[in-house]
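TA notes, week 10

Several of you asked for a full example with nothing omitted. So below is the full record: structure tokens for the whole chain, then the designed sequence directly under it. When grading your own attempts, check the secondary structure regions first.
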């Protein structure tokens, strides 16, 4: 078992040696000793060398997960006993918040304070939520039929594969795998190549909590190698993918060929609709915070701001002063509000979108660009941008995935609804109004998995969060139905 001794365990020690895969309870080098490098986005410099899993390593991880499913008590133990272990895991995550937040901050670039206040505790709470839900779930339910005795029984599927993106590596591991584990499945995780570290620590914590070796396996590696091998593996029973629609299609195609059920959590182009009766200044502050959270690399954030014509000037002026006054800096600096984006590639993407948007005629209220951070000249920092204009502009349509918002104005409710619903994405939108009847009416007409009222980015445990259309399919996360997704329902019938 790979215990983490918090006192002896130093971040620098973890990072100083090549970090291995986690398969069957062992830390294992990748085939051929292959590795890849991750960078600290805040410094632009080397952070860690990590094993690059090959197809044969993914085979080994799936085999280990299958063995754990068939031979350890994980699947067969009473749900409440599994729940005890998941509660222990949640407690261990809480006890290691400082360590996990440090690793997450250096791997993603995000403010450490945000990781320790939100990403890590919210993930821990997700394990508690599903532990309790599964402990109270009915394993058998009778059917009321005549002539037969019949019931359904909830069984775990077996081996579940998970592929994650780089923006919330630890949080998404929690949201993704907690219901699968609570239902008694075993798992293989492929974290993003930009941010593989916290998932590897997660596997060690799971075993320290008493979860049998082989239940949690992690194969860091490149998408086209490790990710493709996992999603096309005929030995998995379920697949979950979180990432871009482009890769989501490839994963769904691969799963389709093997007839493996797949859940896709994809990108977004969220809108905020602000009516003229809303408290403009506080709404502008809230949306400025939302669009700069995690340097704007949030799938459900509001990047299209639809503002009623009457209040547009006041709103834009407050948004510009709030966004323009934010402290951009290194994630480990306590005063940092906006950290770097995850990579130079991502920075070029964000800057390119802003330039194209302006070229297409957008007005730049806040023009963005490269941010210089003293002492961190090689980091991937960008300034927030606030653009505005016609709805056909590239920044009104595409997911930028950076601290960039695009303002459009409207005159009436129908126009606002049509504008929001013109996007092929359908993840999350918000409506801002003191008229709750109107806010409710509009919230329910926006085509997306989630509508929020007078706030943006709300993730309470027990409320399903997921997308429709280009934002995903096959179920969401965080709700009671997500636990159901990880049970294979079987009926049993006996003639009377
Ligand atoms: P991405 O699609 O490029 O990569 C996601 C994962 O897929 C990575 O682990 C990557 O290695 C892997 N991958 C790449 N090629 C693959 C292949 N051929 N086969 C299998 N796996 C492969 O996405 P990203 O850039 O890491 O993340 C950003 C995207 O994720 C954005 O679109 C964002 O909106 C979305 N996202 C969605 C949610 C949600 O809950 N809906 C949450 C977070 C991020």
């Amino acid at each position: 078992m790979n215990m983490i001794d918090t006192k002896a365990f130093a971040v620098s020690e973890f990072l100083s040696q090549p970090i291995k895969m986690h398969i069957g309870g062992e830390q294992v080098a990748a085939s051929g000793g292959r590795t890849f490098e991750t960078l600290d986005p805040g410094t632009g410099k080397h952070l860690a060398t990590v094993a690059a899993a090959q197809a044969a390593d993914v085979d080994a991880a799936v085999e280990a997960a299958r063995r754990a499913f068939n031979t350890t008590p994980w699947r067969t133990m009473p749900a409440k006993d599994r729940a005890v272990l998941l509660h222990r895991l949640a407690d261990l995550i809480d006890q290691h918040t400082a360590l996990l937040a440090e690793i997450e901050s250096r791997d993603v670039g995000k403010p450490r304070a945000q990781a320790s206040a939100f990403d890590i505790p919210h993930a821990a709470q997700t394990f508690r939520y599903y532990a309790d839900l599964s402990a109270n779930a009915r394993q058998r339910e009778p059917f009321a039929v005549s002539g037969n005795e019949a019931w359904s029984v909830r069984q775990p599927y077996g081996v579940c594969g998970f592929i994650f993106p780089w923006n919330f590596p630890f949080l998404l591991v929690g949201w993704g795998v907690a219901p699968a584990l609570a239902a008694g499945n075993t798992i293989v995780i492929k974290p993003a190549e930009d941010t593989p570290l916290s998932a590897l620590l997660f596997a060690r914590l799971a075993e320290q909590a008493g979860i049998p070796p082989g239940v949690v396996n992690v194969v860091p590696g490149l998408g086209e190698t490790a990710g493709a091998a996992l999603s096309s593996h005929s030995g998995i029973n379920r697949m979950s993918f979180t990432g871009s629609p482009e890769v989501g299609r490839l994963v769904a195609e691969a799963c389709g060929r093997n007839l493996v059920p797949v859940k896709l959590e994809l990108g977004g182009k969220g809108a905020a609709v602000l009516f003229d009766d809303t408290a403009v200044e506080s709404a502008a502050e809230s949306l400025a915070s939302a669009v700069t959270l995690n340097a704007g690399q949030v799938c459900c954030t509001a990047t299209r701001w639809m503002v009623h014509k009457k209040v547009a000037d006041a709103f834009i002026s407050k948004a510009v002063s709030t966004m323009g006054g934010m402290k951009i800096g290194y994630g480990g600096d306590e005063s940092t509000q906006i950290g770097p984006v995850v990579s130079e590639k991502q920075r070029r993407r964000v800057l390119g979108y802003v330039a194209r948007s302006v070229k297409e005629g957008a007005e730049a209220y806040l023009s963005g660009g490269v941010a210089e951070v003293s002492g961190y000249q090689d980091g991937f920092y960008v300034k927030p941008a606030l653009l505005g204009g016609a709805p056909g502009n590239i920044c009104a349509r595409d997911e930028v995935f950076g601290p960039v918002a695009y303002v459009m104005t409207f005159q009436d409710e129908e126009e606002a609804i049509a504008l929001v619903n013109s996007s092929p994405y359908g993840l999350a939108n918000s409506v801002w109004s003191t008229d709750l009847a109107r806010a409710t009416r509009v919230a329910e007409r926006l085509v997306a998995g989630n509508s929020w009222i007078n706030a943006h980015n709300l993730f309470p445990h027990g409320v399903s969060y997921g997308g429709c259309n280009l934002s995903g399919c096959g179920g969401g996360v965080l709700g009671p139905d997500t636990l159901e997704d990880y049970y294979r329902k079987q009926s049993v019938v006996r003639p009377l």
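The first strand starts at residue 21 and ends at 23. Use that as a sanity check on your answer.
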